[in-house]
């Protein structure tokens, strides 16, 4: 019988564009996620939403932490597993999704003029995800 690995939830505060926090979560179950988070409209997050046993990682925007009385929006990166040889690819992929969510929420669409802003934010998200994934 496999022992369940310790749940890791790291909270990162976006330093520039968004007041919303980024949570990078590893070694989770559906129960862990639904206990702590919901969609911004109050709908429960489902197994299909988090891609358990399907995706290596998944990015979710427009969530809130259930213990936050103000229901501030947050974004989540859930690390299901990362296959050998896919580490950098998965981090880059999910970092782009979350960056687009953060910056579009802040009113900054991806254009040639905003590309540098996107690049800096992708780097920040990738660093956050890397720090949690390596634990």
What is the percent of helical residues? 25-40%
| Cα shape | globular
How do the helices and strands follow one another from N- to C-terminus?
Answer: EEHEHEEHH
Domain count = 1
What is the mean predicted local confidence, pLDDT? Answer: 91
- SS elements, strand count: 5
Uncertain segments are: none
Gap from first CA to last CA: 22 Å
* Sheet/helix structural class: alpha+beta
* Gyration radius, in Å: 15 Å
Count of runs of 4 or more consecutive helical residues? 4
Strand order of the largest sheet: 1-2-5-4-3
Q: Approximately how much beta-strand content do the residues carry?
A: 15-25%
Q: What is the makeup of the main sheet? A: 5 strands, mixed
What does this entry look like structurally?
- This protein is α+β, with helices and mostly antiparallel strands and 135 residues long.
- It has one domain (8-133).
- The chain contains 4 helices and 5 strands.
- The chain has helices at 30-36, 47-50, 87-105, 115-133, and strands spanning 8-13, 21-26, 37-39, 57-65, 73-79.
- A 5-stranded mixed β-sheet has the order 1-2-5-4-3.
- A hairpin with a 7-residue loop joins strand 4 and strand 5.
- Helix 3 packs across helix 4.
- The radius of gyration is 15 Å and the shape is globular.
- It starts with 7 loop residues before the first strand and ends with a helix.
- The relative contact order is 0.20.
